[in-house]
C-alpha cells in the first residue's frame, strides 16, 4: 500500500478511463458545455487552494483535498449538491488524513461522513510531488526548474489528470513540460532536440553527485576520471518506463488548461462565471 | 438542496441490521463498542454445505456524542483505522470486510477471531506450549514486518490487540493509533503526545523521545513474547497521570520495573541516551545489573536462541534493536519446534477463547452493567479522553492507553 502505488486503493480503484469520466458527468453536461465544466472545476480547485492558504496547510494537503473533491464528483453531479460545502469538507478531511487536524465547524463534520462514504472509505492519496523530486534528483535538475515543474503539478489539479493517470506519469509530464517551456531559451541547460545537452555540471545541483556515483559504479570503470557528462535528455525520457503517449496527453491537457485559464480569468472578472455556476447549480 | 441529497443517500444506504445479525457483545472503550455478528446471507462452501460467516463489528460513537457544539465528526482514530485498513492486505493483519455508515456512526466490519493474546487474565495459568508461542511470535513479527515495510507504525501493540483465529492464524488488530511515518508533515510527537499502553512502552518513549521509529513496535513485541512465556506482564508498572496542564509526566515507576530486569542503561549500551529529553531524571536511579537471563530461566522455554531473540527485542538502543525482518530470520525459528501458520496444529492444549456476552446483542442499546463493568479511568490520552469502559474483570489488565 503506502509503499506500493499499484496495490493501493488509489492505484486499484481510482484511476478512471476518459470514457468512464465522461459518463460520470452526463447530468452536468446537460446544462453546461464541457469547456464550461472545466472552468467550474478550476473555480473549485481555486477555492480549495485559497482555503488551504488561509489555513496555512502544506501543498500536499491541498492536493489531497482537490483529489477528494474530484473523486466525489465522479459519483455525484454538481446539480444535486452544495459544492462549496463539499470543497470545505474535503479540506477538513484531507487535514485529518494527513495528520494535521484543523478545527472546523459542525456542518462540515457532518458532511464529512457522507464524503468519506462516497470515497468508498479509500483515503490514502498518492501525489506527483514525490516522484518529481526523485526524477529531478536523478536528472540533476536545478532547484529553480524543479520549482517550475512543481507549479505545473499544482496547476494539473485544475484538470482531471489526478483521476486519469498515476502520479509518477503526471510528474514526468510536468518535468517534460518544464524543460520544453523553459529549457532551450532561458537556461540552455537542457534541450529536447539536441542529443548532447551540455552544462548543468556546476556541481551545485545535488543530482550531479548522484550521477557520478552511479557512473562510477557502472560498467565503464575505465572512464572514472572523465569529466561528468550531463544526461542525454531524450535518452533519459526514453529510458523511463512510462508511456510516452500518456505524457503527451497530459502535456496537451495542461497547455490547453492554460489557454482556457485566460478565458476563465476574464469571466471571473466579468461575472460570467457566477452566471455559469448558478445555471449549473440550478439557483 | 442538500436535504434532498441526504434523503437520497439515506434510502440507498444498506442498514446494518439488514445484513448482519448481532450475536453478542465483545468489548467497549471510548471509541465505541465491538460486537460479534453473523452475516444474514450464508455462503455455500466447496462441499456444498451452508456456511455462516462470522464478523466482529466495531461501532464507533461519533466524537463527543450528543454535544453538537463541539461535534467534530468521525474521530481521528476511526479515520486512521479506516484509511489504513482499506490499504493493508496481509494474512496476519485483521482484514476489514466493509465499512457501513449509519446515523452518523461508523461501523467497521472485520473478520472474526475467536482468541487473543490476553492470557495473563486466565483463571488457570497453564503454560502455553512452546510450539504455539513460537508460531504466535513468528506470525506477529510477520505482520509487523509487513506494516513496517509499508511505513506504518502500529503504536499500540499489546496482547489485547492481537487476535488469533480458530485455525491458529494471528491477526494484528486495532490500528486506531497506527499511522504512516514516511515523510510526516509534522513531527510524530506533535500528533500524539502519548503512544503505546504503559507496560509495552519502549524506553525511548518513556525518556520523552520526539522522533521515534518502528523500534517502538519491536519493544512491545519483546514484552508480549515475555508475557506469553510467563503468563504475566514483564514490566508491570503504574502509569503516572497527566497533570491539569496536560504536561506529559515522567514515568518513573515504569522505568523502575524495566531497570529491575534489564538493569539501568549505560552509555555503552545506548550511546545517544544523554540526548533524550528526560535523561536528567535518570540520576535518581542507581545502576543495577541485567537480570534478563535469570528472568528467562523462570520461563517455560529452555531455548538459548529464544533468550537471545528476547534480549535483542528488548535492546535499549532503538537504533541497535533488532528489526522485524531480522527477527524473522533469527535462529530461534530454525530450532525445533518450527513455527507454523497454524499455531494450534496438533496441540492437545485448549487455548482460551475471547468472552462474548450473548445477552447484549442489540447494537442500539448500550450493554448491560454486568457485562461492561465500568473500569477506572485508565491512562490518559492527551488528557482529553474520559472514563474508560473495561469489559469483564480488570484484574491483571493494564490500564488502557485509551478506549
UniProtKB/TrEMBL annotation, chain A:
Q: Does the keyword Transcription apply?
A: yes
Q: Which GO terms describe its molecular function?
A: cyclin-dependent protein serine/threonine kinase regulator activity
Per the record, the major location class is nucleus
* Domain Cyclin-like, first and last residues per copy: 46-127
Repressor keyword on record: yes
Q: Which keywords accompany this UniProt record?
A: Activator, Cyclin, Nucleus, Repressor, Transcription, Transcription regulation
Report the record's Gene Ontology biological process terms. Answer: regulation of transcription by RNA polymerase II
Q: Where in the cell is it found?
A: Nucleus
List the Pfam families hit by this protein, alphabetically: Cyclin_N
Q: Give GO cellular component annotations, separated by semicolons.
A: nucleus
The entry assigns this protein to a family as follows: Belongs to the cyclin family. Cyclin C subfamily.
| Designated name of the protein | 4716_t:CDS:1
Q: Which organism is it from?
A: Funneliformis mosseae
UniProtKB/TrEMBL annotation, chain B:
Which GO terms of the cellular component aspect does the record hold?
mediator complex
Provide the primary localization: nucleus
The catalysed reaction is: L-threonyl-[protein] + ATP = O-phospho-L-threonyl-[protein] + ADP + H(+); L-seryl-[protein] + ATP = O-phospho-L-seryl-[protein] + ADP + H(+); [DNA-directed RNA polymerase] + ATP = phospho-[DNA-directed RNA polymerase] + ADP + H(+)
Where is this protein found? Nucleus
Q: Which SUPFAM superfamilies match?
A: Protein kinase-like (PK-like) (SSF56112)
Which stretches are transmembrane? none
Gene3D superfamilies membership:
Phosphorylase Kinase, domain 1, Transferase(Phosphotransferase) domain 1
Where in this protein does the record put region Disordered?
Answer: 357-403
Question: What InterPro entries is this protein classified in?
Answer: CDK (IPR050108), Kinase-like_dom_sf (IPR011009), Prot_kinase_dom (IPR000719), Ser/Thr_kinase_AS (IPR008271)
Q: Which GO terms describe its molecular function?
A: ATP binding; cyclin-dependent protein serine/threonine kinase activity; metal ion binding; RNA polymerase II CTD heptapeptide repeat kinase activity
Q: Where is the Protein kinase domain?
A: 20-333
Among Pfam families, the record links this protein to: Pkinase
For bias type Basic and acidic residues, the affected ranges are: 391-403
**Which keywords belong to this entry?**
ATP-binding, Kinase, Metal-binding, Nucleotide-binding, Nucleus, Repressor, Serine/threonine-protein kinase, Transferase
Known EC number: 2.7.11.22, 2.7.11.23
Entry-linked PANTHER family: CELL DIVISION PROTEIN KINASE, CYCLIN-DEPENDENT KINASE 8-RELATED
Name the family the entry cites: Belongs to the protein kinase superfamily. CMGC Ser/Thr protein kinase family. CDC2/CDKX subfamily.
Q: What is the designated name of this protein?
A: Cyclin-dependent kinase 8
Amino acid at each position: 500500500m503506502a509503499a506500493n502505488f499499484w496495490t493501493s486503493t488509489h492505484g486499484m480503484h481510482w484511476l478512471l478511463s476518459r470514457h468512464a469520466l465522461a459518463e460520470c458527468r452526463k447530468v452536468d453536461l446537460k446544462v453546461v458545455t464541457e469547456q464550461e465544466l472545466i472552468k467550474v472545476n478550476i473555480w473549485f480547485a481555486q477555492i480549495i487552494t485559497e482555503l488551504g492558504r488561509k489555513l496555512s496547510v502544506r501543498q500536499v494537503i491541498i492536493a489531497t483535498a482537490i483529489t477528494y473533491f474530484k473523486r466525489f464528483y465522479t459519483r455525484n453531479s454538481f446539480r444535486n449538491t452544495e459544492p462549496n460545502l463539499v470543497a470545505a469538507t474535503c479540506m477538513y478531511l484531507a487535514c485529518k488524513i494527513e495528520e494535521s487536524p484543523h478545527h472546523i465547524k459542525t456542518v462540515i463534520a457532518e458532511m464529512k461522513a457522507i464524503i468519506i462514504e462516497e470515497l468508498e472509505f479509500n483515503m490514502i492519496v498518492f501525489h506527483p510531488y514525490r516522484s518529481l523530486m526523485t526524477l529531478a534528483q536523478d536528472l540533476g535538475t536545478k532547484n529553480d526548474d524543479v520549482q517550475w515543474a512543481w507549479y505545473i503539478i499544482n496547476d494539473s489539479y485544475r484538470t482531471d489528470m489526478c483521476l486519469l493517470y498515476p502520479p509518477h506519469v503526471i510528474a514526468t509530464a510536468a518535468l517534460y513540460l518544464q524543460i520544453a517551456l523553459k529549457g532551450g531559451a532561458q537556461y540552455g541547460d537542457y534541450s529536447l532536440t539536441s542529443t548532447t545537452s551540455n552544462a548543468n555540471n556546476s556541481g551545485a545541483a545535488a543530482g550531479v553527485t548522484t550521477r557520478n556515483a552511479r557512473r562510477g559504479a557502472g560498467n565503464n570503470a575505465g572512464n572514472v576520471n572523465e569529466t561528468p557528462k550531463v544526461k542525454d535528455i531524450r535518452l533519459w525520457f526514453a529510458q523511463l518506463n512510462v508511456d510516452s503517449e500518456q505524457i503527451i496527453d497530459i502535456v496537451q491537457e495542461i497547455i490547453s488548461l492554460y489557454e482556457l485559464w485566460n478565458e476563465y480569468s476574464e469571466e471571473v472578472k466579468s461575472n460570467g462565471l457566477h452566471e455559469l455556476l448558478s445555471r449549473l447549480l440550478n439557483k | 438542496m442538500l436535504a434532498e441529497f441526504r434523503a437520497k443517500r439515506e434510502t440507498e444506504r444498506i442498514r446494518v441490521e439488514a445484513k448482519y445479525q448481532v450475536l453478542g457483545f465483545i468489548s467497549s472503550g471510548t471509541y465505541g463498542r465491538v460486537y460479534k455478528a453473523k452475516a444474514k446471507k450464508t455462503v455455500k462452501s466447496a462441499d456444498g454445505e451452508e456456511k455462516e460467516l462470522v464478523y466482529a463489528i466495531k461501532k464507533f460513537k461519533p466524537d463527543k456524542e450528543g454535544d453538537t457544539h463541539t461535534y467534530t465528526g468521525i474521530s481521528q482514530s476511526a479515520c486512521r483505522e479506516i484509511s489504513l485498513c482499506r490499504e493493508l492486505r496481509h494474512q496476519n493483519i485483521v482484514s476489514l470486510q466493509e465499512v457501513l455508515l449509519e446515523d452518523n456512526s461508523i461501523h467497521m466490519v472485520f473478520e472474526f477471531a475467536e482468541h487473543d493474546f490476553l492470557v495473563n487474565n486466565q483463571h488457570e495459568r497453564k503454560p502455553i506450549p512452546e510450539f504455539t508461542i513460537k508460531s504466535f511470535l513468528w506470525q506477529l513479527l510477520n505482520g509487523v514486518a509487513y506494516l513496517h515495510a509499508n511505513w506504518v507504525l502500529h503504536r499500540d501493540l499489546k496482547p489485547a490487540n492481537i487476535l488469533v483465529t480458530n485455525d491458529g492464524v494471528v491477526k494484528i488488530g486495532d490500528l486506531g493509533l497506527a499511522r504512516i511515518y514516511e515523510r510526516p508533515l509534522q513531527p510524530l510527537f506533535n500528533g500524539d503526545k502519548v503512544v503505546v499502553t504503559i507496560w509495552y512502552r519502549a524506553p525511548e518513549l518513556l525518556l520523552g523521545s520526539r522522533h521515534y521509529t518502528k523500534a517502538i513496535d519491536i519493544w512491545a513485541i519483546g514484552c508480549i513474547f515475555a508475557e506469553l512465556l510467563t503468563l504475566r506482564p514483564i514490566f508491570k508498572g503504574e502509569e503516572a497521570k497527566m497533570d491539569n496542564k496536560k504536561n506529559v509526566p515522567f514515568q518513573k515507576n515504569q522505568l523502575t520495573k524495566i531497570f529491575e530486569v534489564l538493569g539501568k542503561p549505560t552509555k555503552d549500551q545506548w550511546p545517544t541516551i544523554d540526548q533524550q529529553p528526560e535523561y536528567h531524571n535518570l540520576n535518581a536511579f542507581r545502576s543495577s545489573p541485567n537480570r534478563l537471563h535469570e528472568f528467562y530461566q523462570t520461563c517455560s522455554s529452555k531455548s538459548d536462541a529464544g533468550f537471545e531473540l528476547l534480549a535483542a527485542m528488548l535492546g535499549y538502543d532503538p537504533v541497535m534493536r533488532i528489526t522485524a525482518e531480522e527477527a524473522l530470520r533469527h535462529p530461534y525459528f530454525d530450532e525445533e519446534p518450527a513455527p507454523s501458520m497454524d499455531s494450534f496444529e496438533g496441540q492437545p492444549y485448549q487455548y482460551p477463547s475471547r468472552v462474548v456476552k450473548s445477552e447484549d446483542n442489540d447494537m442500539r442499546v448500550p450493554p448491560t452493567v454486568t457485562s461492561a463493568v465500568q473500569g477506572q479511568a485508565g491512562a490518559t490520552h492527551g488528557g482529553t479522553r474520559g472514563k474508560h469502559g473495561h469489559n469483564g474483570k480488570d484484574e491483571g489488565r493494564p490500564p488502557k492507553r485509551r478506549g
